[in-house]
Design brief:
By secondary structure, the protein is mainly alpha-helical. It has five helices and no strands.
């Protein structure tokens, strides 16, 4: 966990993660998982509202946030942030 998904949340939060993955994919996954993880039988209606209005994430340029960069540029920026965090953590670990 330390070097996996949790590292990504330091670079982007959960809503931006959903935008990058795509709201349609997240809605499908949550449709299968929600009944097993919580009291809800289905994903939040907010996902359907966003999807029906064309707000599907970085591929349309808007999801929970608006984007001016291409999907490739957005994921590249996220990955650069993750690598910067990783380098900083590695530096701290080598000095301990």
């Amino acid at each position: 966990m330390r070097d996996g998904y949790a590292l990504r949340t330091a670079a982007v939060g959960p809503l931006e993660t959903i935008n990058i993955a795509g709201l349609d994919l997240v809605q499908t996954v949550l449709g299968d998982l929600s009944p097993h993880l919580c009291d809800a039988d289905e994903p939040s209606p907010l996902l359907e509202e966003h999807l029906s209005s064309g707000r599907d994430g970085i591929h349309s340029g808007v999801g929970f946030f608006e984007y001016n960069d291409s999907p490739k540029g957005i994921t590249r920026a996220r990955d650069e942030q993750i690598m910067a965090i990783r380098r900083a953590l590695d530096k701290v670990r080598t000095t301990e």
